[in-house]
TrEMBL record:
It comes from the Bacteria. Residues 18-173 form the Flavin reductase like domain. GO terms for molecular function: FMN binding; oxidoreductase activity, acting on the CH-NH group of donors, NAD or NADP as acceptor. This is Flavin reductase (DIM6/NTAB) family NADH-FMN oxidoreductase RutF. Pfam families: Flavin_Reduct.
Amino acid sequence: MFYRPADGHPLPHNPFNAIVTPRPIGWISTRGADGRDNLAPYSFFNAVAYDPPQVMFASTAAKPDRDGTKDSVANIRDTGVFCVNIVEYAARDAMNATSAALPREVDEFAHAGLPKAPCDTIDCPRVATAPANLECRLTQIVQLPGAANFVVFGEVTGIHLRDDCIVDGRFDVTRFQPLARMGYRDYAVIREVFALNRPGEQGE
C-alpha cells in the first residue's frame, strides 16, 4: 500500500502516529506571566543534544483563547522557561486527565490531583512525584508549516532524579516503567530492557 499524505489516506484512521512509535511523552509544566500553572502531555517530544543537554517538544493544536497555539507554548513565549516531567506507568490516569482541553485559568495539577514542587533553576512548578524532571530554558520556538505547528527547544539547566530510580549508579527505567505513546488511542509501557554494544565496543 502507498499513499500521499497530501491526498489523504485510504484507511479508517490515520496511520501516521502508529508508524512513528513508540514515542516518549513530555509532560510539560509551565507558569504563565499571570502566575497560573499549567501541565500538559506532548508525545512529539525527545532529547536532541548532549552538550549542553537540550530537548524539544512540538505542539500541533490551538485553543481559542491562546492566539493560535496552546497554553504551554503561550506560557513559554511569555516566560522563557518550562519543565519536562517524565511519565511513569503509575501516573497514566493523571497524565491523561491533564490532556483535557481546559480553560486557561484551570490548574491541571489540581485538576489531576498531582503534588507540585518548585524547580531549582527556573520559576516553574514540577510534578513532585515524577521519576525525573528536566528544568529547561527556552532557546527557540520554530513555527512549522501548518496552522498551529510549533516546535519548542530548550536547554536543560537542572535535573531531578527520584532516589528510588537510581540503582548501582544508573537511572533504572524499569523501576518506574516509562509510558510511551503509540498510534490511535494506544500506549505502551517499558518493563524490560536489553543492551547492545556498538561494533568495536567492549561490554561492561
